[in-house]
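hey so i finally got around to running the thing on that chain from the lab meeting. sorry it took forever, my laptop kept dying and i had to restart like 3 times. anyway pasting the input first so we r on the same page abt which one it is
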Amino acid sequence: MNKDKFYTLPVLNYGYKDLEPHISEEQLKIHHQKHHQAYVDGANNILMDINNADLKKLAFQIGGYKLHSLFWNNLAPAGARKPAGKLAEYIEKDFGGFDNFKEKFNKAALSVEGSGWAVLAYDKEIDRTLIMQIEKHNVNIYPALEILMVLDMFEHAYYIDYKNEKGKYIDAFWNIVNWEEANKRLKI
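ok and heres what got predicted. didnt touch it at all, straight out
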């Protein structure tokens, strides 16, 4: 297999200290360099012997790689408190306002069973935004929806900083959301 066709760990658009106090340098470094790198390595190792691949494991590894890549880009050191532009219009239309959306998204994040993700997605066919939960990296995905924003709810994403207080991690997330990136992903 051509080594040029393998996944690589994406470079962050900010430094490891830049998301503090919401996500510490230590938490971000371990999450990015160890956990995300493990999904990169896992997917690449399976792809090296694709003819004997365990497709469930491959889906898990690639899902971990892709969702983490989305996650890093929807974080920003000086995130806006609320979305603007088209995304704000869709949130207003589909959820009756940002506060209602935030409440529903928080509930989805808090109720992820075990390890997984809370996700804001867009369904072009029905022209609306939807919240979904993804278990692990590859279960409960609404096929073919454009993912606009993700929140990693695996313990490795928050445990150093927040221990078992997932709610505090979710509250901190709203301070560093890159709404500009989420708006760019909304392709209408």
